[in-house]
């Protein structure tokens, strides 16, 4: 009788623990899915300064084909000369200058 009571108590405790664990896991999984969906809906906008049509076309292609998958949106800001993008970048009007990438800067600093 004593063994039976111990076995039933242990079995009941195990069952209740499994129920609570599965409910908790499902709740966590649902909140994670909700966060993932909302993060995908919120795209990070990056403004990039360009000075030519070719650069603009490249960035539009990247925006339409690659950036969306990464949760990014690229806004192209076109300038008429090579100085304006640098000034706009300094003044934080744009986030990046198409020509100031790492290889360009490494070469310019030599």
Automatic annotation (TrEMBL):
| Record-linked InterPro entries | Lipoprotein_NlpA
Which locations, inside or outside the cell, does it occupy? Membrane
The membrane topology of this protein is: Lipid-anchor
Can you quote a single GO CC term?
A: membrane
Task: Give start-end of the signal peptide.
Answer: 1-21
Lineage: superkingdom: Bacteria
Q: What keywords are assigned to this protein?
A: Lipoprotein, Membrane, Palmitate, Plasmid, Signal
Family, similarity comment: Belongs to the NlpA lipoprotein family.
What protein name does the entry list? NLPA lipoprotein
From what organism does this protein derive? Nostoc edaphicum CCNP1411
């Amino acid at each position: 009788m004593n063994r039976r009571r111990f076995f039933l108590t242990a079995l009941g405790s195990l069952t209740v623990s499994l129920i609570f664990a599965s409910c908790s896991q499902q709740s966590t999984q649902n909140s994670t899915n909700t966060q993932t969906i909302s993060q995908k809906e919120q795209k990070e906008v990056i403004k990039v300064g360009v000075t030519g049509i070719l650069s603009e076309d490249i960035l539009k292609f990247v925006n339409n084909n690659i950036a969306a998958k990464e949760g990014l949106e690229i806004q192209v800001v076109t300038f008429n000369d090579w100085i304006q993008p640098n000034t706009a970048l300094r003044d934080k009007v744009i986030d990046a200058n198409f020509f100031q990438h790492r290889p360009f800067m490494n070469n310019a600093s030599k």
